[in-house]
Amino acid sequence: MERFRMVFQYFQSNTESVANGICALLTLASVKMYTIFDFNCPCLPKYNVLYGMGVMFIPPVVLFFVGIIVNKHSVMMLEEWTRPTGKRKKNPAIIKFMFTNLIQRAMIAPVVWILVTLLDGKCFICAFSVTVDPSRFNGLPNVPGLDITRVLAKVPCKEDIIFQNTTSRKAVSRYLRCWSQALGWSILLFLIMLAVVARCLKPCFNHAAFLQARYWSSYADLEQKLFDETCSTHAREFARKCVIQFFESMHEEMCQGMILPLDDEDDPLHGITSRKQVNELLKAWYRSKPDLDITKIAQRQYNRARVRVTWEGDQNESRQAFKQNGHSPHTDV
């Protein structure tokens, strides 16, 4: 149970891992959906192609858009694209990096669906049975009043009475299934070779620009997450003090000893104590993201450190002076 909690916390805190987990779940869901899908070819010349191609390509389109919707990078990319410029300029490299990751992850589940359908062959047989050259196969049924196109359209329906006493249906099915599987394995081999080439050529490109885009993409995600956490902390403290103030005005004796001092250095309100100030803060955050420069805070921390070192030095000098005079620094003279 403890290991499961640690894994869950890791996935919850890491956006990259969350995206990979969602991608894996969509891929497994696509395979599971196909295995439980009840495939019934209409066995009619005008509808076989529509049904077969529909089953092969419509679910991948749905999975593609679902992958885009559930991926957090899509929201981040749109926010980065549509936000006002303000003090922070927009970085096209970040948007490009997010868009590439978004498309790559969203395409995995649709590609897996198409590969599974091709390797299985049912959709391909249903869609292209009427396109087979009948002269290649001997023993096709010759039914009076029924043309050869209608006969070939019934190849996917093995229970049809036309093919009860003939083996031609199996021959046509094997022929089309071989073409389907060959196409599926060819697409898989092409994707693997494309991934290998991309991996090999990756060091040839500007790796520093890639690292920068990846860093600032992670920064944008963490910045929004920290801003939400800070807003939550501020809202909690603001609501707590509003509730305490309400009870204090109604029953002052119920709130004795519960109110924290307003001059606390670690006060989460940061001096923002009214609804108007909060609304102005949120508007300012949206209209003008802060500049990516924290030198002011670094300088303030440096000054505090210098003051602390100076104070500690003065204390040490005082102790040494007391010792040289033969007095203890903790005794009254």
From TrEMBL:
InterPro entries membership: CALHM
A Pfam cross-reference name: Ca_hom_mod
Subcellular location: Membrane
Keywords: Ion channel, Ion transport, Membrane, Transmembrane, Transmembrane helix, Transport
Biased composition (Polar residues): 318-333
Primary localization: membrane
Region ranges (Disordered): 313-333
Membrane topology: Multi-pass membrane protein
Bilayer-spanning residue ranges: 49-70, 106-130, 182-201
Keyword RNA-binding annotated: no
This protein's record includes keyword Ion transport: yes
UniProt record similarity statement: Belongs to the CALHM family.
Record-given protein name: CAHM3 protein
Organism: Polyodon spathula (North American paddlefish)
